[in-house]
Amino acid sequence: MRLDLAAARAFDLSRRAAREAVRAGRVDVAGVTEGEPGLDVPPESALTFHPDRPARYRVRTSLPVLHEDADCIVVDKPAGLLTLPTSDREKDTLLSRVSAYLQHRYRKRPYVGVVHRLDKETSGALVFARSREALRALQELFKHHAIEREYVALVEGTPPEAGTLDADLVRDRGDRRRGVARPGERGLSAVTSYRTLERLPGASLVSVRLETGRTHQIRVHFAAAGHPVLGDAVYGAPVRRSAEREDGTPRQMLHARTLGFAHPRTGQTVRCQAPLPADFAEVLATLKRRKTKALRPKPERRGKRQVPKP
Question: pLDDT tens across 86-124, in order?
Fold first, then answer.
């Protein structure tokens, strides 16, 4: 049942008034404020109505918000944007955009706690905490790997149908880049599971799940296995890197599609999915067209008609 319809029935409101109450942030579902009138809720959901709660302001923004409540916010990070500023003190980061969004929406200076990060060129779902208590709870979930994280990636070649990459990782493999530990070398435990979704010309679309959360883990593991992420300018094969760029791969083809966790206050499951961004979808569509063209049967070549001699 739609949330606005459930609220209208529960609190004797008109459908329009219920819809506006939800959009204003005055209706909670099991203690969590929801702002989407079309949200599907079970009929037995515990709804509470707060008519005197200050209304949320609707903010026009290019920042896609996947989930928002009083404790946390999940956003869809675009590729090419830093999660946090570096020592160069960049002003435009995902953190600054989320802070600006919340400040305009609630008309007060917000608390935004950083729970985890995504690489600059990686897109997808990322959660920020909106209170110190929520930050500690979410960081504990990440620390104990009690988070559902699924990525999709386009990688070079044809890896097996499914597998687990569990090589330990080191911060510096000898060229100031992260890498796989050599025999006898001490590294950090890292486990990456994957399954192949589709084989494409020269590449494969894979679904990846993290059992640990090391920096660059997916990129390093797949590169070490001989299947670097397409467009990866750091861990990709140097000989192929320029060819990938000329082939239309705008950046590393890695996207954090699914993020799920227990809500830091209610314990209920929050599960968000970030749709494939346009650049990733375009590269995937190009590869699929090539696959279709390669599988299309070629017309038979007919020889010259032989004219019998008299």
Answer: 888 898 999 999 999 999 888 888 999 999 999 999 999
Average model confidence (pLDDT) for the chain?
A: 88
Structural domain boundaries, residue 45: 1-56
Task: Tell whether the model's pLDDT for residue 238 goes beyond 60.
Answer: no
Residue 61, pLDDT above cutoff 70: no
Answer with the one of 37, 56, 75 that is the final residue of a domain: 56
pLDDT at 191: 95
Other beta carbons less than 10 A from residue 304's beta carbon: 5
Domain shared by 47 and 116, yes or no? no
| Cα–Cα distance for residue pair 215/187, rounded to 1 Å | 13
Residues 116, 260, single domain; the answer is yes
Residue 249 pLDDT grade (very low, low, confident, very high; cuts 50, 70, 90): confident
Question: Which residues contact residue 264 at a Cβ distance below 8 angstroms, ignoring those fewer than 6 apart?
Answer: 71, 72, 129, 133, 134, 137, 138, 141
Structural domains in the chain (count): 2
CB-CB contact of 57 with 18 (8 Å)? no
Residue 119 falls in the annotated catalytic set: yes
pTM: 0.77
Domain assignment present for 234: yes
Which CATH number belongs to the domain containing residue 4 in this structure?
3.10.290.10
Q: Of 69, 71, 119, 279, which is the active-site residue?
A: 119
